[in-house]
Amino acid sequence: MWSDRRLCELFGIDHPIVQAPMTGTCTPSLASAVANAGGLGSLGAGEKPIDLVRREVGEIRKLTDRSFNLNFFVTDAARTDPAVLDATLKRLRPWYAKLGLGDPPAELPPCGPGFDDARLELLLDLKPKVASFHFGCPDQRSVEALKRAGIVLVSTATNVAEARSLEAAGMDAIIAQGWEAGGHRGSHTLTEPWEAVGTMALVPQVVDAVSVPVIAAGGISDGRGIAAALALGAAGVQMGTAFLGCPETATGAARRARLRRATDSDTIVTDAFSGRCARAMRSHFAEEMERSRQQLPAFIQMYALSEPIIAAADDDDASFHLYGQAAGLMKENGAGDMVERLVRETRSVLKRLVIA
């Protein structure tokens, strides 16, 4: 039924549906179930120790012989200006006092680059069918080594200029991530929360700007969204929030309950938790931090300051539940059933449009 089969052929899959690599939520069970149903299962490796990534890839390979994707963050080593840290500590002290946490930590842990030589060697050793990247793409030496190993390379763009730079760098496909998407925005540079392009506007412009297949992401949760993305020229879609209700995810009971009553307007884009913009559930902490914006410690050092607040506060006061604006469309199905349902829905929509 897929008239554009470029992604199916590139990834070795049956359906151009990519399960987003949500670090901390994706599991080997989720990735393998999606893969076995004909989509591209993904595993987020962005902040995980290398040994854990190896173990999880081993689990995936016990559960499927189909293609899967490993995702990495392309970030520089974290460097936080002491003046920025001091200003942030001043802002956070009232929250620490309110929650009985004492003083916030005066020093931040060192954080190396997101994708380094050790992770390059890991990828070359594991040889997944697909490797994807967030916040940019690796240097040319790494790209060439990965291509020689036969690994298909994908990265995220949040505007046309980023898409062009990814094609020039050698990416085999590009994810066009719209404003609606949950989780961290894949911008190649630090951005303000309001600096974004919606999926409907972004996808056709990226399609026109590059020659490689484009994967639409952001606000796509059912067959209607997939059909719309295809109509915009995308070769396929990436979906994250849609899979949060699957039993194979590491979504905790409280977060599942919250997602069941999610609406189109209960998320906010904020960098208050990690140091980079991400769409997450609204909370008093995020709203307060966004009302008076100041530079924050670097990604991922900011977690050292925000995680104690998240752990001590209730969800309405401070939480970092990552999901997109289409969470209200989420269904609680097994991941394999989810892929099959999405294919049926898309087929039905496309058939109706052809008849019309």
Description:
It is a single chain. Helix content is 40%, strand content 13%. By secondary structure, the protein is α/β, with parallel strands linked by helices. It folds into 2 domains: 7-77 and 112-252 and 330-355, TIM Barrel (Alpha-Beta Barrel), CATH 3.20.20; 78-111 and 263-322, no CATH class. The chain is globular. Strands 1-9-8-6-5-4-3-2 form an 8-stranded parallel sheet. The protein has a 3-stranded antiparallel sheet with strand order 7-11-10, covered by helices on one side.
Q: Which fold name is given in CATH as the topology of the largest domain? A: TIM Barrel
Averaged pLDDT = 96
Uncertain segments are none
Radius of gyration: 20 Å
Produce a short descriptive summary.
By secondary structure, the protein is of the alpha/beta class.
Secondary structure layout plus pairing:
Elements: H1 6-11, E1 17-19, H2 28-36, E2 41-44, H3 50-63, E3 68-73, H4 82-98, H5 117-126, E4 130-134, H6 140-148, E5 152-157, H7 160-169, E6 173-177, E7 183-184, H8 199-209, E8 214-217, H9 223-231, E9 236-239, H10 253-260, E10 267-270, E11 278-281, H11 284-291, H12 303-312, H13 335-355
Parallel strand pairs: 1-9, 2-3, 3-4, 4-5, 5-6, 6-8, 8-9
Antiparallel strand pairs: 7-11, 10-11
Features:
single chain, 11 strands, 40% helix, 2 domains, 356 residues, TIM Barrel, 13% strand, alpha/beta, 13 helices, globular, 3-stranded antiparallel β-sheet, 8-stranded parallel β-sheet
